[in-house]
Automatic annotation (TrEMBL):
UniProt entry keywords in alphabetical sequence: Membrane, Transmembrane, Transmembrane helix
The protein's name in its UniProt record: Transmembrane protein
Species this chain originates from: Streptomyces bikiniensis
Membrane-crossing residue ranges in chain numbering: 36-58, 70-88, 127-149, 155-175, 187-208, 214-233, 307-325, 379-400, 412-429, 480-499
High-level lineage: Bacteria, Bacillati, Actinomycetota, Actinomycetes, Kitasatosporales
Length: 516
């Protein structure tokens, strides 16, 4: 083929985009087979050690969510569809399908192609992959949590698969919508999703449809995907390329951090910048306000994180109470673990000063050493906010469950208090994390192979792992007081390990505080 023929073949924008992507994919510094072999090996080991036992345990026990009829399954399907749309929108605001490698995006922006020409081709391919992944995730979750697959060939199973297909169709479109549309339009879509989900759930649960509620729950997401996709692809020509370039550069940096074993640094890149209320930190006489007021103002300067914390902390406290009060052991453990995880996540979103303490302990002081009020200044607001928000919700749930004179309320209070202490200790451990210790990369030779990757994986999520393991240990304790003491001991171990990560031991820190 001559040069002229090749140029004529590549005059079509689709062919030009394909040629650029093909040349970039076959560049000289791309990953080799040997470099990809270890991640594949690590994934296989993780599946064999963690996923397979969990799947076996779930499938050999009774289902968590039995679905006996279409009327009972319709509200669950509506909730899953709404959660998928909301999650996809939120993900698109941070990492959407149009995020490219910075160099590749720069090449496309330097051509005469319209943004719709090169972004549309890439978006369609990624939405297809996202739809297949969402379909697989929904089907897998249905297989593990419900009993639909225990009745092969039933109409209810066919309806459930149709719902999964509908969710797999609308979630990728919402993912693209979250990236290219404004905040107002995303809020409108989120509100419309909530109203539609409630309407379909009420209509599908009524006897008017005669058991066809799941067909309606499957058809509405599919129709919404068709309508939204036409609208969202038409807006690709007006994409803010400067904003997309910033998102791509941040995504590339975050991906580098994640591949090098520092996932927490990658997540820090997506923490929103504080805005407004700067003067509220200072009194009229020029002095700083109190520790609690400073923490509250700093939390309000990141309103999105504060709203998320305001939702997760009370919900987590209520779930904790329901978990310790539930007579069914399996349901109690699940509710307890989910509640503890919710409080753990909420404590991170409300506590911007956690990371300030880490920086003060690890970085060199600029204006001399001043240790007297460090702990009080950085930990006062997170502790008060977490204990107040989660504790009030937990207390309300306890009062609704038992009268005050009931002795079981005392045991439940001890378990909830111990869980909160454990969560706070685990959050301290997570926020004191710095770089990946080199000793974690040393091989661990076992009959299953090298398990050093599992240790690195546990280090990445050590705070959440500490919470879940602590809940399981507390659940096995014979008494509430013993469980609370165990949780306090685990929290103390987390605090000690967190201080060690910053290069300080409790002894040296106490000596430094005593000299101040």
């Amino acid at each position: 083929m001559t040069t002229d023929t090749l140029s004529m073949a590549e005059t079509d924008p689709k062919d030009r985009v394909h040629a650029v992507r093909h040349r970039y994919a076959h560049r000289g510094d791309r990953g080799t087979v040997r470099e990809w072999a270890y991640p594949v090996y690590l994934t296989v080991v993780l599946v064999l050690v963690y996923v397979v036992p969990v799947v076996h345990l779930v499938r050999t026990s009774r289902p968590l969510l039995p679905l006996e009829s279409s009327a009972a399954a319709t509200p669950v399907a509506c909730l899953v569809a709404a959660a998928a749309v909301w999650g996809a929108q939120l993900t698109g605001r941070f990492w959407g399908p149009l995020v490219l490698k910075p160099f590749l995006l720069h090449v496309f922006m330097s051509t005469d192609l319209s943004p719709a020409d090169y972004l549309g081709t890439i978006a369609r391919r990624r939405l297809l992959y996202a739809g297949l992944g969402t379909l697989l995730a929904v089907v897998t979750a249905t297989f593990l949590v419900t009993d639909l697959f225990d009745r092969p060939g039933s109409v209810l199973l066919s309806q459930g698969v149709a719902v999964a297909v509908g969710v797999g169709a609308v979630a990728p479109v919402a993912w693209l919508w979250g990236q290219v549309r404004t905040v107002r339009e995303n809020l409108l879509l989120a509100a419309g999703t909530a109203v539609t989900a409630v309407a379909v759930a009420l209509l599908g649960s009524s006897p008017l449809l005669g058991g066809g509620g799941l067909w309606l729950a499957a058809g509405v997401p599919a129709a919404a995907a068709a309508l939204l996709s036409r609208s969202v692809f038409r807006s690709l020509h007006a994409v803010d390329l400067a904003r997309l370039a910033r998102e791509s550069a941040r995504a590339a940096e975050a991906q580098t951090f994640a591949w090098t074993g520092t996932l927490h640094h990658a997540l820090d890149l997506y923490r929103p910048e504080p805005r407004g209320l700067t003067s509220a930190l200072i009194r009229r006489d020029g002095r700083l306000r109190g520790h609690l007021v400073q923490g509250a103002v700093r939390a309000l300067r990141t309103r999105g994180r504060t709203i998320a914390a305001a939702a997760f902390l009370p919900a987590g406290g209520a779930l904790l109470t329901l978990g310790v009060a539930e007579p069914d052991a399996r349901t109690a453990t699940l509710s307890w673990a989910v509640g503890a995880a919710a409080v753990y996540w909420g404590s991170g979103w409300v506590g911007e000063t956690w990371r300030g303490l880490r920086d003060e302990l690890t970085l060199a002081p600029l204006l001399g050493e001043r240790w007297g009020g460090t702990l009080a200044r950085t930990l006062a607001w997170p502790l008060v906010a977490v204990v107040t928000a989660a504790g009030l919700a937990s207390g309300a749930a306890l009062l609704a469950r038992w009268p005050l004179q009931d002795g079981r309320a005392v045991d439940a209070s001890l378990l909830v208090a111990g869980s909160l202490v454990l969560v706070l200790g685990a959050r301290f451990l997570r926020e004191m994390k710095t770089d990946l210790p080199v000793e974690l990369l040393l091989p661990i030779i076992t009959p299953l192979g090298d398990l050093s990757g599992l240790r690195v994986f546990a280090w990445q999520f050590d705070g959440l792992v500490a919470v879940l393991l602590g809940v399981l240990v507390m659940n096995e304790m014979p008494s509430a007081s013993g469980a609370a003491l165990t949780a306090s001991g685990l929290a103390a171990c987390c605090v000690w390990a967190g201080l060690r990560r910053t290069g300080w031991s409790p002894r040296t820190l106490a000596a430094r505080l005593g000299r101040t």
